[in-house]
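Hey L., structure's done. Input below.
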Amino acid sequence: MVTAIEELDSERLWVGAVAALLVALIGGSIAFPERVYYGFVWHYFWGPVLADAQSAACAVYADGSTTYLSDAASCAAAAEPVAYPGYTIVSEIGYAVTLLVALIGVVFLLRRLDVGRDRELFYALFPYMLVGGALRVVEDAFDAVPEGVDIAIAFPWNTLIISPVIYFTMFAITLVALVASVRLTGGDANYRYPLAGVGTALLAVILGYLTFLAFTTDYVQFYPQITAVVVVAATLLTAGVWWAIERYAPQINRGTRNMGIVVLWAHTVDGVANVVGIDWARELGLPADLVPKHPVNRALIGVGEQFPEAVQQVIGTAWPFLIVKLIAAVFVIWVFDERIFEESPRYAILLLIAIVAVGLGPGSRDMLRATFGI
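Output:
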């Protein structure tokens, strides 16, 4: 059992490590701005956010200023550093490391609040995983606003709801809601009800706003069949895989139990949303298919494109991503065995929350983007 002194030492070690990393990044950016800030931080992390916020094909840094270009040819001809909207392998690794460090900090916070050992926290935070994806679609809707029309959240504030900054925004919102709910209930187990209520209310407001735009503007449409197809297909696939696990390998899910269903469904939604949006959006009524932004998605679509044209016409090219998602979800469920929950329940639950969010956030965004024709 971890003693109070050991917990305090662990917290101090975490604070020291985070402080050292921040000092290295900030100090390096000041001492060597061209190499550390513009060559690394701006190039892989902040530049893509700026390009996305300005709806540009890319952002280019040169001579102390940032220029936004609107066509791929100009971006390809520009001198580095050039930042494109979306993710790179470097940025995805950086965000994964940041996520793990943040989760450790949250474990320390949950210890101090004396919550998070039960699985109810996992279910109470489920609405927030959908809020992140829905909020990202709001910014997508702003990209479609015609010139001369005011948008609700303009640059630079819209960077707060652009990936990956939106993950930090949602982290802050969720943290505030958690602490407030615990304080409101005096640390009682009932904290999960106001926590889930806040998340559900936020989701309802955001979906209501998108629906309002769909019926009052020309740049947001409404294709409810997309959501219906994604949700039904993801649910059926989840049910089938879950039945197979329970029937042939029940030991896989002895640790996560019902949380495993949520993990599997979240990543199945992500996979199905990609398949539907990239391969079948036109067939379901949209003007055009969606375009993948993540390098992993693009790489796996490349695998699908290796099959004969006749096969692609039948099953599309995005299906390898769905297969990988299903395999990864089952692997996660298997890894989180009973021993992990016995030794460190808070960290296990937080990791599962993060894993679900990483799947359901992008998945719900892709689904809602297609649903609202954005």
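The radius of gyration is 22 Å. The chain is about 70% helix and 5% strand.

-- N.
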